[in-house]
């Protein structure tokens, strides 16, 4: 299957700083990327959907000024957690889909990023 | 609105036996897709199997099969001949065409433990 690379896999940052997470599609053009957040022992919660070249669409309750998403190219989307606080500590995972948008097209996931804010 | 329900927080199975993980869904879309993903402790999401709403045959992929009952809105995952490496979280997910972005909505997950 297609490969999606997410970096970093783990990051520890101080409260008040910003953290950038990258999601790259390595062997296909990702017209749509999704960002999820997963708390321990819970399910994946969709945060936002980004289409290349346009503004991201955020799910209800997700602060767009807190979680900045940039999808500037067909192979890269970034999630920046601004002014991080301990409650932002979580597992963040991205997924990407190519131009064919059929319902049966699987989403390819990155490896995830475990963010710890101290 | 779309919703996925997995009512089994945890399941145990003996190695080499079969296990069924339950999943029910709710959607107003006529066309939709159902997915199962495996998430080991490393966190990666591994795609297992897909079932389309118009598919008449149940999907199968190796030891994985999907028991699709459209009228009941259920899409249970059956793992045959369980292996120790099957121990992981399993998520049922659905994609419809609502919202225009083909969002993938996940259930709460079921933690499967395979005992030797």
Can you summarize this structure?
The complex is a heterodimer of chains A (118) and B (116). By secondary structure, chain A is mainly beta.
Query: Which percent range fits the helix content of chain A?
Result: under 10%
Any idea what the radius of gyration of chain B is?
Answer: 14 Å
Question: What's the shape of chain B?
Answer: globular
Main sheet summary of chain A: 7 strands, mixed
E-strand count of chain A = 11
Report the principal-axis shape of chain A: globular
Q: What's the Cα radius of gyration of chain A? A: 14 Å
Quaternary state reads: heterodimer
Assess the beta-strand content of chain B as a share of residues.
over 45%
Sheet/helix structural class of chain B = mainly beta
Query: Helical percent range of chain B?
Result: under 10%
Low-confidence stretches of chain B: none
Beginning-to-end CA distance, first to last residue of chain A: 36 Å
| Greatest chain-chain contact | A-B, 26 and 26 residues
Query: Could you tell me the mean pLDDT of chain B?
Result: 92
Number of helices of chain B: 0
Spans of chain A with pLDDT under 50 lasting ≥5 residues? none
SSE order of chain B, as H and E? EEEEEEEEEEEE
- Measure the end-to-end span of chain B: 41 Å
Written account of the structure:
The complex is a heterodimer of chains A (118) and B (116). With 118 residues, chain A is mainly β. Chain A contains no helices and eleven strands. In chain A, the strands form two sheets. In chain A, strands 2, 4, 5, 6, 9, 10 and 11 form a seven-stranded mixed β-sheet that branches. In chain A, strand 7 (67-73) and strand 8 (76-81) form a beta hairpin. Chain A is globular. Chain A starts with a strand and ends with a strand. The mean pLDDT of chain A is 90. With 116 residues, chain B is mostly beta strands. Chain B is built from no helices and twelve strands. Chain B has strands spanning 3-5, 10-14, 19-21, 24-26, 33-39, 46-52, 60-61, 64-69, 74-79, 88-95, 104-106, 110-115. In chain B, the strands form three sheets. In chain B, strands 2, 5, 6, 10, 11 and 12 form a six-stranded mixed β-sheet that branches. The interface between A and B is medium-sized, with 26 and 26 residues.
